[in-house]
Amino acid sequence: MRNYIGLIHKDAESDYGVSFPDFPGAITAGSTLDEAREMAEEALAFHVEGLIKDGETLPQPSSLEVVMANPENKDGVAILVSLKAASSRAVRINVTLPEDVLARIDAVAAAAGLSRSAFLAKAAKHEIERNAAA
After folding, report:
1. Which burial class, exposed, middle or buried, applies to 16 when counting CB atoms under 10 A from its CB (0-12, 13-18, 19+)?
2. Residue 8 host element (H or E)
3. Going by CATH, does the domain composed of 1-88 fall within 3.40.50.2000?
4. pLDDT tens, 4-52?
5. Which Pfam families match (predicted)?
6. Which of 73, 63, 86 is nearest to 19 (CA)?
7. Whole-number pLDDT of residue 79
8. How far apart are the C-alpha atoms of 109 and 55, rounded to whole Å?
């Protein structure tokens, strides 16, 4: 299992944002610190899954010293994000949803820094866990 540095950013009137210096463009957010940490793990897993699917090579994790030496990272708070081995491979499916529901899904997913697939997977996992606890 590899560990990568995630940087948490928080502006006064925003959610907690998380970026990954080793994966430019991979970002996520959460309304609480705990949610941001959870989303960071999911976002990293989905981003890496896409890189692997595209035949890309994963970078070696940068050290904390290297990440924090970059002046662009000085305002972030570093966290360690574990890249867990995928428990199963992604499978493409076809679903039919009302247009207004799909638009709302896309808006909420984008606001959270997630793809539509990542958002739907997270929502499904949430409901599965909620129903298992009942």
Report:
1. buried
2. strand 2-10
3. no
4. 999 999 988 889 999 999 999 899 999 999 999 989 998 998 899 888 8
5. HicB_lk_antitox
6. 73
7. 96
8. 26
